[in-house]
Write a structure and sequence with these properties.
The protein is about 40% helix and about 15% strand. The chain is of the alpha/beta class. The strands form three sheets. Strands 2-8-7-6-5-3-4 form a seven-stranded mixed β-sheet, with helices on both faces. Strands 9-10-13-12 form a four-stranded antiparallel β-sheet. The longest helix is centred in the last third of the chain and has 16 residues. Bound molecules: glutamine.
Length: about 375
């Protein structure tokens, strides 16, 4: 037997893969992993077919197709009133998670401390640890998952290298408010602390609220990597195309890693996305589109014994279930898959420490009938 010391001894398979596989095995309705069960726009597919036929089948430039980078820079300027140089400050990635992985790999050295807000997307902590970094978790609690910035300050030390933010937040649907941004600006002022801002749900913000991007604030922008995703924007999570924004100096380091990791992202998809996104109504319509789904799902869930937590953004609805059972969220999620045949994600999976919060996350980026059948099943509880 070959012996091999694991780089991530405490890490198993990501909860998203585990739950989606179980959902399939038990023929459960899959509201666990976040992805739509409806198709993307046929126009977009036509653009892909056209790009393939037009011969866009060889390597794209390492940083991504120039036209797509320019389009992204223009989009960012119009949405967040700031400029990124498409040549030096925008890189196309194989999805948001690769952008996150690459930004961390480009910056975190052994002993560096990284502050994360839990419940947190499950790639952050293992990636930091794999790089020899130390995870400093700020634990947010239901129902509102508010951040007490005085407590965040206490996590700061001379080894703090980075803060990872995620708004709209996966899994909670929490979004940062102006007061959070003000506190963050104060916190990092006069330091070299970097920010990794996971903004993959930037277009999924509801009730007329605005997405507050790190790009909009010069004091934050200068130290930020921003990770974004076309999967959410195009309803095509399987394409695994996203991008990263960062000031030139940071982006230079990012690309040193990117070039030896994916080198470049598939060409025809980049060409198709560029052609498709010339029409900005594609993303400007997303808040309404998803808000309708959120409201539809929330109204259905009100007929069950689950209690709804707030959802201001993302495509996730979290619930508590004191009126249903005293089980841990992992146990209940398992029972829901095998007996009720609805798959969800236990939010405790997004904390590094054991937690007694009992919260489930459901993805509502689904057809109305899918949500209806799921809730009919959940009503039996
Ligand atoms: N972002 C998606 C979610 O939270 C899943 C991403 C993945 O499966 N890697 O469900």
């Amino acid at each position: 037997m070959i012996s091999n010391r694991s780089k991530l001894p405490g890490t198993g398979t990501t909860i998203f893969s585990v739950m989606s596989k179980l959902a399939e095995e038990h023929k459960a309705i899959n509201l666990s992993q976040g992805f739509p069960d409806y198709d993307c726009d046929p126009k977009l597919i036509d653009f892909v077919a056209q790009a393939l036929k037009d011969g866009y089948n060889q390597y794209a430039p390492m940083a991504g197709m120039p036209a797509l980078r320019e389009l992204i820079a223009d989009k960012v300027t119009s949405l967040y009133q700031t400029d990124y140089n498409p040549d030096t400050e925008v890189t196309i990635t194989a999805g948001g998670t690769q952008a996150i992985f690459t930004a961390l790999t480009a910056t975190i050295q052994a002993g560096d401390e990284v502050i994360i807000f839990e419940p947190a997307y499950d790639s952050y902590a293992p990636t930091i640890k794999m790089l020899g970094g130390l995870v400093k978790s700020y634990e947010m609690s239901p129902p509102n998952y508010e951040i007490d910035w005085d407590m965040v300050k206490k996590l700061f030390s001379s080894s703090t290298k980075m803060i990872i933010l995620n708004s709209p937040q996966n899994p909670t649907g929490h979004i940062l408010a102006e007061k959070d941004i003000e506190a963050l600006i104060k916190l990092v002022k006069g330091t070299d602390v970097l920010i990794l801002s996971d903004e993959v749900y930037e277009h999924l913000v509801y009730d007329g609220k605005k997405h507050l991007s790190m790009a909009s604030y010069p004091e934050l922008k200068e130290r930020s990597f921003i990770a974004a995703s076309f999967g959410k924007l195009l309803h095509a999570t399987g394409w695994k195309v996203g991008y990263c924004l960062a000031p030139a100096g940071l982006m230079q380091e990012f690309r040193k890693i990117h070039q030896f990791n994916v080198f470049s992202v598939n060409t025809p998809m980049q060409v198709a996305i560029t052609n498709y996104l010339k029409d900005s109504s594609v993303y400007l319509g997303l808040p309404d589109f998803f808000q309708q789904k959120r409201d539809f799902f929330r109204n259905l869930l009100r007929e069950t014994k689950f209690d709804l937590l707030p959802c201001n953004g993302s495509y996730f609805q979290c619930v508590t279930y004191d009126r249903i059972s005293e089980e841990s969220d992992t146990d209940l999620a398992m029972r829901l898959i095998t007996e009720t045949r609805v798959a969800s994600i236990p939010v405790s999976a997004f904390y590094t420490r054991n937690t007694d919060h009992r919260v489930l996350r459901f993805c509502f980026a689904k057809k109305q009938e899918t949500l209806e059948i799921a809730v009919q099943r959940l009503m039996k509880l």
